[in-house]
Design a protein that fits this description.
Number of domains: 1
Number of strands: 3
Shape: globular
Number of helices: 7
Largest sheet: 3 strands, antiparallel
Helix content: 25-40%
Distance between the termini: 45 Å
Radius of gyration: 19 Å
Strand order of the largest sheet: 1-3-2
CATH class: Mainly Alpha
Strand content: 5-15%
Oligomer: single chain
CATH topology: Arc Repressor Mutant, subunit A
């Protein structure tokens, strides 16, 4: 996120956007890459106003770093489960690494969109691997600069996918 904001890929993304991204990242399920939105809890934890949280979540989506998995609704999920009381369904986001980041740093990714990248949970690394890995930070300052001259659409991504047309046929093997 720091690179995306520093590269100026969104004119309004700033340090507040980064605080909100870190809050989502701290609560992300690293098995799926998903995080519950929980607007009021983000407001309580960060001290950022409700309107600003909503605005900066929009910036994260426009940057391509968040994709909607499920839109929250006011439907009472507790009634559907046979329980008393009220609880609406939650909005769920998925963390995404935008193609602009991979392109600028020369990464080659197989596939496109949300499904092209695997999620790794580095919090659960074995001791031997963690000790062998150097702890120095990565310096990306020598990477190619991002060309922001062309006007780009700020359409937020979603997890919709194109239907498959059929199976690949192997011939002569």
């Amino acid at each position: 996120m720091e690179w995306l904001i520093a590269a100026g890929l969104h004119p309004r993304a700033n340090a507040t956007t980064l605080v909100i991204a870190r809050d989502l990242g701290a609560r992300m399920d690293y098995d799926t890459g998903h995080a519950l939105y929980c607007l009021y809890k983000i407001v309580a934890r960060t001290g950022i106003s409700r309107a600003s949280v909503k605005r900066h979540i929009g910036y994260l989506r426009e940057l391509g770093s968040l994709a909607w998995v499920q839109h929250g609704t006011r439907t009472n999920i507790r009634r559907a489960l046979g329980l008393s009381g009220y609880a609406g369904t939650a909005t769920i986001y998925a963390a995404v690494i935008p193609a602009a980041y991979d392109h600028a740093l020369g990464h080659r990714i197989i596939g496109t969109g949300y499904e092209a990248r695997a999620v790794a949970d580095y919090r659960q690394m074995p001791e031997t691997h963690a000790q062998a890995t150097p702890t120095a930070t990565v310096d990306n300052t020598s990477a190619n600069p991002v060309d922001n001259s062309a006007k780009r659409s700020c359409e937020p991504p979603s997890l919709t996918s194109a239907p498959q047309k059929g199976q690949v046929q192997m011939v002569g093997v």
